[in-house]
Input
Amino acid sequence: MKEETRQRVLAAARQVGYTPNAIARSFATRRSGHLGVVMPYVPKARLFSAYYFSEILSGIGSRAQANKYDLLMLFREPGGTMDYMNLFRSRKVDACIILGAKDELGEREAIRELDQGGHPYCLINQRFDGENFHVVDADHAEGGYRAVRHLLQAGYRRIAFLNGPDVYSNSRDRLAGYRRALDEAGITPDESLLFEGNFSRKSGHAAAEFIAPLLPGIDAVFAANDRMAIGLSQGLRARGVKPEHMPALVGYDDSDSAEMSDPPLTSVRVPFYQLGELAASHVLRLLEEQGGPADRRERMHLQLPTELVVRASSLNRTM
Amino acid sequence: MKEETRQRVLAAARQVGYTPNAIARSFATRRSGHLGVVMPYVPKARLFSAYYFSEILSGIGSRAQANKYDLLMLFREPGGTMDYMNLFRSRKVDACIILGAKDELGEREAIRELDQGGHPYCLINQRFDGENFHVVDADHAEGGYRAVRHLLQAGYRRIAFLNGPDVYSNSRDRLAGYRRALDEAGITPDESLLFEGNFSRKSGHAAAEFIAPLLPGIDAVFAANDRMAIGLSQGLRARGVKPEHMPALVGYDDSDSAEMSDPPLTSVRVPFYQLGELAASHVLRLLEEQGGPADRRERMHLQLPTELVVRASSLNRTM
DNA sequence: TGAGAAAATGTACGCGCGTACATTATTTGC
DNA sequence: GCAAATAATGTACGCGCGTACATTTTCTCA
Output
């Protein structure tokens, strides 16, 4: 086809105001052109930090846009399990990225179906032990290890851990890092120093009830995200703990609030934006290769490094 | 049709594993089933606060889900203007909600087309003077007024204002509120106390350069969002301003960071989640009524009330 | 100028659903 | 038991595009 003709046609199309009908095109090509993003169910979006999602979504969005794909947001229902297969059967999406999946029976089963169905998908920040799923993750074991080693190096010995629910692999990973750090320092982990919140500021605040009484015996706390760390700090203050008796504090995620809190919060930076980008890239590549031998395809399992960002909250208080 | 037959058919469908093809259905009905959400261009999602968007998106999402609509995220290109009309011409969306629109020539024109084309759309948090668009907004003039009146009542007289860019109607509205409050208190607004940031923490931090030198002559600052307020506070501290010389501070949005900062930040709460819900409801209603006489349809213009949340940052320092 | 290649133009069909309407089977009311 | 009402079944078509292929026109080179 000659370039000149091509231009003439395009000009004529513009002349009559022709715009291709995206639906008809999808229908003919049997591709929706949509990249699905499954969001966790979070009442009013408060539980998971907004930071976490906006970063990941931006990363996904930038890649999707570059590849002419549209982002379709899919919200989990409050109760039930998401039927991922149906997204593909009904042709709503060409590929999908799953956020905030929990390691629960129905979920695991649903993803296994997806995987065996040979559909392009990718989990972000969640691993399923014993499965070989496409996952883009950060190295939270290393992140936890660094956080705790940092506290140990700063001279703290009795280090409590306010973790998240263990349906999330990142919770389990951080715990492993915590244990390893203590282990290397020759400290026997004290199970009574382990606490669990749900990543909300409130749950951090509530944890103060259990942590405050132990305070002479705890000199530092590692929290599984910044919101809980800040909530805990506020909770302790509300219970009358004086600044000079505050335990050292290390958070996780290095969200905006880490540098906005007082004292600024030492935290573990997680490359959420990149996680999003990589997951989108991966899923779009799977989509391209979909002609190939499906069973031979290797599963992706990435673990991006994290980075400890030291701020005032974890400096030795004798300084 | 008898209920029994209906069940028999559904059972048979399940039997053979039939799932309707969403694309084919869209094609036949000439409806995409998508609710478009136009996102502002924000490099790495940092400029606009994550809080703002996740709240609005959650609100939109809840309504969309309840009406069996999917959310299609549409990202503005870095440079150009969004061609809203084309979203409808190409049948990508049945309705759309526009976030973060700026009052600029191309934008205004594009929305006017949309409006005159009779398409279901709604702006959130942005008004265009002289146009009669569908808008769901909050009463930022009232919000600004309350913030400043509160400072006046607390005894502050020299009140600076760190506003956002005036391509946003909310910036202009807040300024009007600021002026009215001063006016009522018999204070002549001093133009040299007006500063402009871009809603980022950084820009608040940077504003400290100009505000710090004036400090004896400024006893309070009202900032157009919490991030700038906190950035400013940090910037002043970084410039050696002692806590006892810190101006009183009022932020805006009442985001998470307001209650996480130290001292806790007085702020103006904006019902972002509801803005999202209402915009979605409205747009879906327009969609239903689309058969009706398009030109006679009234434009929506809502202004939800805001609420002042008083915290320590604005208490009189003599207390 | 004529044969062959390249480009342009024309024609037909299917993607899977909704919709409309005609036909046949079943139920209802008297 | 018969006509009318109701339900079930069958048939046809179009939505607007991509794709394949046949046909015609234009270009190229000897």
